[in-house]
């Protein structure tokens, strides 16, 4: 049996991780989706402007309700739209976002990225937070 640390390390190796700097560049693009997979309480204490909070345990169920996809009447249309967009996932340190990235990749999404270091790294760089 694997320890959680070993398991998350393996998941991180299987998904595409990007830096906070990469995320900052990506956020200048109009079709990018940023999902914060932390719990609601964590999100309320500070988040990146433009992010949407879908806690890790609800991501797969809520992904089609993202504001950029909500105009679709059919779930499959929302999924098809999402498949054309880059999805960046962030959490506190990068573990939950890596698990979320693996899940979306397993669902068939191609352009999925986990932000290494997560919000801890964002704050370490003293970047702007919304409340």
From TrEMBL:
It comes from the Bacteria. This is Sulfurtransferase. PROSITE patterns: RHODANESE_3. It comes from Alteromonas mediterranea (strain DSM 17117 / CIP 110805 / LMG 28347 / Deep ecotype). Residues 28-131 form the Rhodanese domain. One of its GO terms (molecular function) is thiosulfate-cyanide sulfurtransferase activity. Pfam families: Rhodanese. InterPro entries: Rhodanese-like_dom, Rhodanese-like_dom_sf.
């Amino acid at each position: 049996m694997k320890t959680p640390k070993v398991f998350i390390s393996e998941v991180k190796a299987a998904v595409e991780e990007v830096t906070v700097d990469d995320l900052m560049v990506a956020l200048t693009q109009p079709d990018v989706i940023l999902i914060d997979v932390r719990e609601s309480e964590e999100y309320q204490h500070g988040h990146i402007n433009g992010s949407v909070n879908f806690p890790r345990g609800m991501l797969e169920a809520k992904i089609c309700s993202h504001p950029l996809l909500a105009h679709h009447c059919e779930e499959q249309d929302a999924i098809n739209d999402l498949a054309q967009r880059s999805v960046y996932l962030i959490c506190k340190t990068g573990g939950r976002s890596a698990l979320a990235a693996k899940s979306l990749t397993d669902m068939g999404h191609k352009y999925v990225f986990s932000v290494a270091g997560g919000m801890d790294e964002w704050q370490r760089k003293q970047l702007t937070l919304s409340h």
